[in-house]
Amino acid sequence: MAVASAPANDAKANEFLSTTRKLLINGEWVDAASGKTFGVLNPATGEEIARVAEGAEEDINRAVIAARQAFESGPWKDMLPNARMKMIMKLAQLISDNAQTFSELETLDNGKALSISSAVDIPLAIDIFEYMAGWATKLEGRTLRLSSPGYHAYTLLEPVGVIGQIIPWNFPLLMAAWKLAPALATGNTVILKPAEQTPLTALLLGEMIQEAGFPAGVVNVVPGFGETAGAALSGHMDVDKVAFTGSTEVGKLITQAATGNLKKVSLELGGKAPNIVFADADLEAATAGAGLGIFFNQGQVCCAGSRLYVEKSAYDTVVGGLTDVAANITLAPGMDPACDMGPLVSEEQYEKVTSMVAGGLSDGASAAVGGGRKEGAGYFYKPTILEGTNPNMEVIREEIFGPVVAAIPFEDPNDIVKAANDTPFGLSAGIWSRDVSKAHKMAEAMRAGTVWVNCYNVFDSSLPFGGYKQSGWGREMGADVLELYTETKAVCIHVG
Ligand code: NAI
Ligand code: MG
């Protein structure tokens, strides 16, 4: 295995990569109980760029003990909302002060363009910490009028307790931030398990958490593999809730593992989003939006618009335009300023995308553009548009999680709702039309947690995000996420 030396531009990032990174447990950086480490690869080259301690069951157990202790006693339990708010704001500021280091580590670890990690991943992570810091001082119960006389009753919102958070590799820091920020704002303690493919920015975040002054054990960061560290966390009898983002398949395993102590579960899983372009839309904007919808982040986005339905009279314009978009995308390592699209995250993902597209082609689909890998070093896959699919093909039914869209013409707008909703997933949908009434009706008809109208992939800390059907349980971000991290206590006092 080739080992890259100083792959970053940023001196702090290179320094970070130069020593084996440890686990953060109970406010200390420690080796794994087993002493094992694993290599972190740069998907643009396949080279190892760092080594990280490999957490497993024993480390998870230690982290849960620390998180329980921090939850039940000590400074975190007694910290007033205003102090919690300030501490989370300080964390946001520290991420901002180290934004370049975070961006470069994210790009080297995940593969995405540095222009994306520095303009999207890191700023949105900062924003969710700031947004959720604001909620820390605004959690309110209610007073209730009972039907019987003589009672004073009210509700209290309290933290759920010890939370396990299992993070995917597509937006490593941002997905950690979406989960950590609301958990901390509401007073919980956390064991965060980043994806084994991309543990680096979560570990740098751990350093910032230490620097911001969070008490020991409030946030523990334990990288490791899903089948070991992840399974230990989701099955742990002293974890009160597990929050997961990743595959629907693993979401089901986590739900089963959670039954031992009936811990709460929230899930953000796969998608197969319809992006629907009506002929009356601004077709130029719709074409650009279709490109953003599927090619952003190499298509490794759970809400990617992977089924592009275009009204027949506009089909050639939109799909022709999108073909040009795809053909003009420069595939390059994320650190290269010329990069429009980086590599897929791992060899495993590269094989998955390659074999699913090959399957679609042998099922009878054709590729208007792309349809294969870029040969050479790194896991680069060409932006791909499939045509001639039918609704039963695997490429239409299953999430590919790569830069691959199926373009599908439709004639009768009345049929499109049924086709769009004909999927076990329900994370998101896109609608493109200048007809306001049609857009509203379509938005209501979509069985999906997010509907974008005349835009796509717009994320904001105030917009709840999550899935219908097999795309998940619960909503992250916005005020809705507070439900996932609080218990409601009804207090009923007999006053006579
Ligand atoms: P995955 O679901 O296996 O991994 C996501 C996280 O779950 C990682 O932290 C992993 O360590 C952990 N994990 C894996 N097995 C576990 C287990 N048994 N118990 C507890 N935690 C476990 O996803 P993978 O294998 O990396 O990618 C496979 C497919 O999943 C992708 O091709 C894509 O379709 C989908 N995916 C969806 C994501 C989303 O944002 N909704 C993110 C990542 C993957
Ligand atoms: Mg997996």
Kindly summarize this structure in a few lines.
The chain is an alpha/beta fold and 496 residues long.
Structural account:
The structure is a single chain. Helices cover 40% and strands 20% of the residues. The mean pLDDT is 97. The strands form five sheets. A seven-stranded mixed sheet has the order 14-15-16-13-12-17-18, with helices on both faces. The protein has a six-stranded mixed sheet with strand order 9-8-7-10-11-19, with helices on both faces. A three-stranded antiparallel sheet has the order 5-6-20. It is an alpha/beta fold. Helix 4 (81-97) crosses helix 8 and helix 5 (99-110) crosses helix 6 (114-136). The chain is globular. The chain has two domains: 11-269 and 472-490, Aldehyde Dehydrogenase, Chain A, domain 1 (3-Layer(aba) Sandwich), CATH 3.40.605.10; 274-462, Aldehyde Dehydrogenase, Chain A, domain 2 (3-Layer(aba) Sandwich), CATH 3.40.309. Helix 16 (436-445) links the parallel strand 17 (428-432) and strand 18 (450-453). It has 17 helices and 20 strands. The chain binds 1,4-dihydronicotinamide adenine dinucleotide (NAI) and magnesium ion (MG). 1,4-dihydronicotinamide adenine dinucleotide binds next to helix 9, helix 10 and helix 13. 1,4-dihydronicotinamide adenine dinucleotide (NAI) binds at residues 166-170, 193, 195-196, 225-227, 230-231, 234, 245-247, 250, 253-254, 268-270, 302, 349, 352, 399, 401.
